[in-house]
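[[Local backbone shapes]]
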Amino acid sequence: MGHGAATALLFVAAYLLGSIPFSYLVARRRGIDVRTVGSGNVGATNVMRAAGRAAGLTAFALDFVKGAAATALVRRLAGPEVAAAAAVAAVLGHMYPVWLAFKGGKGVATGAGAFLPVLPLPTAIGLATFALVAALTRYASVGSIAGASALALAAFWLREPSALAWAATLVAALIVWKHRGNLRRIAAGTERRLGGRAAGAS
């Protein structure tokens, strides 16, 4: 098998691993189709609101681990540059899973997990930014956008390999795009805050 074919195969494998719909499966075990409740988003925040904190944290952890597993495996087999592509593939798998007719989540937990093995310090900065901004604004969506952006900026600031920094930037852009509905609801004053009762969801 040639180098290009092997790289393509690893990319597909990372996509398929990222596409495992853990958030959907965790909620389904509790008798809930997360696609039909709250925001309809197949992600940890919507699972938490629909099925409880424990379910939401479980979904977040599993989505995080699948991203980390995809990138760590590819890095071991093919090096950091191919792992950068694998990180993007895992996030695309979560956002557009083949198992759910390409309707998935927003990639935050999977993205954080995917970059942890290859960009540990920028990922830590991104997670800290997410926690701080979400706590201050009480918007999971704003925290997610801030955290993803901080990870990408930190990768450049810390002079990480360019392939990884640009991969983080692409993932941040995808996460912002997937949150465009949240941003519209924030502007309209209808976005649900963490712990709030207002309509709408992240």
Notes: Residues 118 and 133 are 24 Å apart (CA to CA).
